[in-house]
User: Which sequence fits this backbone?
């Protein structure tokens, strides 16, 4: 197996010219290409794929649009990153489906390898018409929810709404990874600032929006890492650990089903956020006409709810933003979580240095591909370069890191991760990373 | 030299969300300037910037600051010291979501400019 990393921060004609020049110098005969575009180059994706096809007609092009990438020499949020791979023991498959179960189980059947990397849009913003439909469903289900006679009926209504959200917008990583066998590193795509029809995936040289792309691998090592202390052995123990970890902590009660949250302390999630932190709130008109059209809808927040798992007592964070909606969608399935949770401000105590630990288990001379929480861009911005320099100084081998949220499935986890929310399944809305180590010798 | 500078700055200078990208000498002379929004307000701002460069550099070096930023109406002016005589200036919208990403990218540009000068 051999591979080569190629990056360019440019876009448009400049990018295509630079790419053609750089490809001339590359001697590797790639049969698989991983393409990572950013917001500045998503319009150039077709031209880039055309250039790649001219140079490598037999190669399979797979990839996605990410928030940024880092290599030994740079960390950019613009341009493209390419991984040109010459490997026979690697398979690529893609699948789609109305439900998460359908999409992921189909992908699992197609990939025979025991180790897999799966790219999927954890949150995908659909087309304008579907956003309007979702806003209508939100009003309709909330109307029904408010008028429901008892808690059972409320839960049933939320469950119906959850199915709609899942079919149009969200692939919850925990539900998805449940359907997969072997060791799986999930790269959960979610835009930092969203527009209509984002994020984008590339498979077989074409763009798609609601699909999962899987890469089956052999002879690789995969690791998971989170910045949090180990989880407790009971609800109260984990609660205490989180209370000491986060800066501002309130105990709140949530009512939910599936991925739909009906209330936080008796208010809608948006009303709750307005009450507690005085958030201004995004108006519906601004959401449709301004934010989503310009691709400026923030999908990241410094405040969130930390849910505690009934199965493992691990915890997972969900960011809260004051969107003009009543039923708040969660990015992960909540059925295995306690109704009582923590409202807090997201903050890593050690800053970007908290992520240095993700490298502790990695060998020096291998190639490393990793995915690191996209929150680090708004949280630490240029300090991300400290992490890049640290990795470059510790290891001889080359690396490519992308900014996307990480999910992981393995039966052999090396510690009691706070983010292990189901047995063997790790996911957290913040502070996670996965590393795929490739031995090139 | 100028061609190289413009190549290094081009990834950000071409971004329409960045209203102005400029590289100033300590005396206030612009070595490179790309203005993506040509309005009277922006031109006034550029004129004002020329007079601020010297004092900004003084603060950056005497107070060991990494950068200086000013807010003016709906824009933010950010100044980064590249060397003892050069300041990199960006003007972006105050509410711009990609501000954080620009911060990440600027570090690459400053590194490359330092190698060059």
Assistant:
């Amino acid at each position: 197996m051999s591979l080569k990393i190629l990056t360019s921060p440019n876009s448009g004609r400049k990018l295509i010219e630079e790419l053609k020049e750089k490809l001339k110098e590359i001697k590797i005969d790639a049969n698989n290409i991983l393409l990572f575009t950013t917001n500045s180059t998503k319009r150039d994706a077709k031209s880039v794929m055309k250039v790649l096809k001219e140079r490598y007609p037999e190669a399979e092009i797979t990839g996605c649009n990410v928030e940024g990438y880092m290599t030994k020499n740079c960390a950019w949020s613009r341009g493209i990153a390419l991984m040109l791979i010459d490997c026979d023991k690697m398979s690529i498959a893609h699948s789609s489906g109305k439900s998460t179960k359908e999409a992921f189980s189909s992908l699992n059947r197609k990939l025979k390898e025991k180790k897999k990397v799966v790219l999927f849009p954890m949150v995908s913003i659909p087309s304008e018409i579907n956003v309007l439909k979702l806003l209508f469903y939100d009003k309709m289900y909330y109307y029904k929810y408010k008028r429901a006679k008892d808690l059972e009926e409320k839960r049933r209504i939320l469950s119906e709404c959850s199915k709609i959200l899942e079919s149009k917008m969200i692939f919850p990583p925990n539900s998805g990874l449940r359907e997969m066998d072997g060791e799986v590193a999930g790269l959960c795509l979610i835009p930092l600032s969203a527009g209509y029809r984002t994020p984008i995936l590339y498979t077989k040289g074409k763009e798609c929006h609601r699909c999962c792309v899987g890469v089956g691998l052999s002879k690789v090592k995969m690791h998971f890492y989170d910045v949090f202390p180990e989880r407790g052995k009971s609800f109260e123990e984990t609660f205490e650990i989180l209370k000491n970890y986060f800066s501002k902590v309130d105990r709140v009660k949530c009512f939910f089903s599936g991925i739909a949250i009906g209330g936080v302390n008796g208010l809608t999630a948006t009303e709750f956020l307005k009450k507690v932190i005085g958030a201004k709130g995004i108006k519906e008109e601004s959401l449709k006409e301004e934010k989503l059209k310009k691709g400026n809808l923030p999908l990241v927040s410094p405040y969130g709810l930390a849910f505690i798992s009934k199965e493992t007592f691990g915890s997972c964070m969900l960011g809260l933003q004051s969107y003009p909606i009543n039923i708040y969608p969660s990015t992960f399935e909540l059925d295995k979580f306690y109704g009582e949770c923590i409202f807090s401000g997201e903050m890593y105590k050690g800053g970007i240095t908290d992520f240095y630990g993700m490298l502790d288990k990695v060998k020096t001379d291998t190639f490393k591909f990793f995915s690191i929480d996209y929150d680090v861009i708004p949280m630490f911005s240029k300090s991300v370069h400290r992490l890049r320099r640290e990795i470059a100084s510790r290891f001889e081998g080359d690396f490519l890191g992308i900014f996307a949220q990480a999910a992981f499935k393995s039966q052999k986890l090396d510690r009691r991760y706070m983010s292990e929310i189901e047995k063997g399944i790790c996911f957290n809305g913040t502070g996670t990373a996965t590393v795929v180590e490739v031995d090139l010798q | 030299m100028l061609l190289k500078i413009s190549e290094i700055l081009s990834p950000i200078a071409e971004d329409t969300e960045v209203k102005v990208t400029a590289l100033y000498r300590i005396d206030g002379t612009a070595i490179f300037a790309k203005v993506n929004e040509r309005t009277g307000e922006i031109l006034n701002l550029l004129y004002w910037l020329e007079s601020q460069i010297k004092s900004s550099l003084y603060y950056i070096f005497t107070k060991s600051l990494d950068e200086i930023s000013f807010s003016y109406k709906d824009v933010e002016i950010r100044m980064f010291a590249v060397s003892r005589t050069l300041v990199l200036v960006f003007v972006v919208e105050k509410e711009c979501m990609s501000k954080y990403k620009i911060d990440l990218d600027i570090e690459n540009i400053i590194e490359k400019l330092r190698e060059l000068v």
